[in-house]
Amino acid sequence: MIAGKKGSLFTLIGLYILTIPFFNGINVTSYDNSQILGHFGESTTAFTYALYIPIFAMLAFLPLGLKIGKQIPMRTLILSASFLSILFNTATLFVTTIEWFTFFRALLAVVSVVGIFASMVPILLKYNPVFNMALLYGILQFIQKGSQHIYQFLGAHFTSFYNWTFGIYFLNINFLICILLAWFFYKADVAPMKGKFQFDWRGWIIMILFFAVILFLCVEGQSRNWLSDFKIQLACAFLFIILGVYLIHVRFTEDAIIDPAVYRHKNVVIGAFIMFYIGVMNGTGTVVKGYMDNILGFDSVTGAQTHLALLIGLCISIPLSTYLLYKRIYLATIFILGFGCFGLYHMILFFRFYPGIDTSDFFLPLIFKGLGTGFLFPLSLLYISEGVPPKLSGSRMMSGIIAQAVIASLLGSAILGTYISNLNVHHKTGLSQQFTPMNQEAQKQLNNSKNKFLYLGQSEAEATKNAEKSLYNQTSQAAILLAYKDIYLVMSAICFLPIFIILLFKLWRRPIGRVEVEPIPI
Fold this sequence. Notes:
One of its GO terms (molecular function) is transmembrane transporter activity. With 522 residues, this protein is an all-alpha fold. Helices cover 77% and strands 0% of the residues. It folds into two domains: 1-129 and 164-195, Up-down Bundle (Growth Hormone, Chain: A); 255-522, Growth Hormone, Chain: A (Up-down Bundle).
């Protein structure tokens, strides 16, 4: 009996390890953007498209990938996904244009979806319902979120050792290990979930059009100043037209990608909103990374090391939240812990945006962010899945992904970037207006700077010009700090607000309900 348990645990660990490379197909080079941009020498806009397109390709392919995955024998599927991943990943080393690089990265992202599903099915079949769903979701989230930061950290170090191509080689080694593990753990080549293939092709095309418009808004919105530009206005109007066309479409199809019947389950509606809310709170992390890279001048290795603080938080919160869910603790308790940690993350950073901020100032708030992520992500995935019949599993999954990943994280981050830029201009203008002869402190600083340049042998005109430039640079730094403080103060209030609502209306004073659908923790 003991030997059997040890063998079962060994098999389980091996099956989980198989999922890791597919979760991180495009994570390992996420800190190499400047090198890749320099390699191809493209414009910032073109490179931004290259960053977004693989993500949207993966999300768009998800419903079709899951359907295809159920039709093909598991061993064939995992071996094919691993081999194709190596092929597409290697192809990015030899392309000469950003278009082909983006094309093969998108194919790698698409194949990753198939690999995730192929590597998860044996776990679902072998250990569920033996496993409690809370444990299954918790372990998958721990592996996904934890490996994400480890791969980004390793990718940043590989880049510093050689260049961005080292991360590609590292990922290929991972996929080769997947092939070896598949030969060992996948004993039978069968398709246990195979059924009649039926797919909503028309609805899929409509969804791709919807994603294409969101992609355009994410990339072009900031440079075109959003609704002040006619093309942005047209794109927004087109979104509503696509939504209307889809609502007409679902009336004439039986197996829609997103069946409106799923919204008869209140937890799906509320869960989608919660996932959107979490995406908004989590999206401010791009602000911190941008501040580290663009304002403070941190290199990729320093940024990756700082973000390992998130991993510390995840290592504490995901096992704890999984244990609480398994022990059937009230949902309200876990939600309050998660929202509270996100609130502390934003509040601490609000007080730490000051001149002279250093790497050490980011560790504690990022630990709290990791804690919030670990409490809220597994819980939100379970809550939106609660009581949903298997027939509506895909509708539930795509509702959550669109709410959190597409609308909140991708589009929301682009909108937030514009809002910060506008706040920065506002504060810079306000600070510049204070540089008058009446402001003795500013005049004193200007004269001291001017005297330093005169001492270096510069002419009167040159010294004056450089002194004004130095003061202007200091003003820019102060303005961006004020802009970030504004954002994080507002976000801290947004994070703490759900806690007061939960306590005031006595919400979720019950444990998690029954969950039967497949956990796809993307």
